TrEMBL record:
PROSITE patterns: ABC_TM1. Pfam families: BPD_transp_1. This is Carbohydrate ABC transporter permease. The lineage of its organism: Bacteria, Bacillati, Actinomycetota, Actinomycetes, Micrococcales. It comes from Herbiconiux moechotypicola. Residues 86-277 form the ABC transmembrane type-1 domain. SUPFAM superfamilies: MetI-like. The keyword Transmembrane helix applies.
């Protein structure tokens, strides 16, 4: 027993030290539970109302439904043309992730592994670009896209999303790639590998957590983005799910049960993705924020 106590004591001290000297307490658990309930309550009410009729929402807006009416989801799916919206969103999200990986990955590798001049100036420029509001680019970008023939095309919207996500992604990926030992580069070059082989076969596979984090951030941003989608797409057949839902909610403002059902349909993919990827996503952000 004494030996077990001796073995456990360093772990206990380390845990207390990691939490700043404060271990788990009933007060901390209570606060966390309250915060979780506050965050989950709107989503719970949304799910409840998606199963109700419009009349029941008026009489019981916050409580659970008297019965589960799955017909709301089928009607919202059909009336909102959500199948087409999900297809367009899938194309936009996939294109945004691939484009961001290509652009941000190349730039981050150059900043992290190559001896480029004016590195600090480039990083400062990226920080400044991130701080600028995207609304200031809409008008000049609109006229440029008209001249280039990219208006009302999914490709034009994908290019915009890649450009919006690349500065932050470059800075985040750089923090991952900087932490990789340079001895790996030197060993690969001694074996005859060129720069492309070093980047694609050695460095970038090791930095896959960073690419995963960047892909999730850019993909989720493209999935829920509304401002550029509304202004740069006109054809209803090209509308992503966010714009389709906006038009649907404006046309069926009195049918709150259908609007809530459509909202649940849109949120479900995000919840599933978060449940499967939350550990890697949070670990990736934490690692990226503590390096470089």
């Amino acid at each position: 027993m004494a030996v077990l106590a001796t073995l456990r004591s360093p772990r206990k001290k380390a845990a207390v030290h990691a939490t700043g000297g404060l271990g788990p307490t009933p007060v901390s658990y209570t606060v966390l539970i309250l915060l979780a309930l506050i965050a989950a309550l709107p989503l719970l009410v949304l799910v409840f109302n998606s199963f109700k009729t419009s009349l029941e929402i008026g009489t019981n807006p916050l409580g659970p439904p008297s019965e589960l009416d799955f017909a709301n989801f089928a009607e919202a799916w059909e009336r909102g043309n959500m199948a087409q919206g999900f297809r367009n969103s899938a194309i936009i999200v996939a294109g945004t992730i691939l484009g961001t990986w290509l652009c941000a990955g190349s730039a981050a590798y150059a900043l992290a592994r190559l001896n480029l001049p004016f590195k600090r100036g480039i990083e400062t420029y990226l920080f400044l670009v991130i701080s600028l509001p995207v609304q200031m680019f809409i008008v000049p970008l609109f006229f440029l896209w008209v001249q280039l023939g990219l208006m009302n095309t999914l490709l034009g919207l994908i290019i915009i999303y890649v450009a919006l996500n690349t500065p932050f992604s470059v800075l985040l990926l750089r923090t991952f790639l900087v932490g990789i030992p340079r001895e790996l580069d030197e060993a690969a070059r001694l074996d005859g590998a060129n720069e492309w082989q070093v980047a694609t076969r050695i460095i970038m596979p090791i930095g896959w957590p960073g690419f995963l984090t960047v892909g999730l951030v850019s993909g989720l941003g493209a999935y829920g983005e509304l401002l550029f989608a509304v202004n740069f797409l006109v054809d209803p057949e090209l509308m992503p799910i966010s714009t389709s839902f906006l038009q649907f909610s404006q046309g069926f403002t009195q049918l709150y049960n259908l609007v809530n059902a459509a909202s649940v349909i849109i949120v479900i993919p995000l919840i599933i993705l978060f449940l499967f990827m939350q550990r890697r996503f949070i670990a990736g952000l934490a690692t990226g924020g503590t390096k470089g």
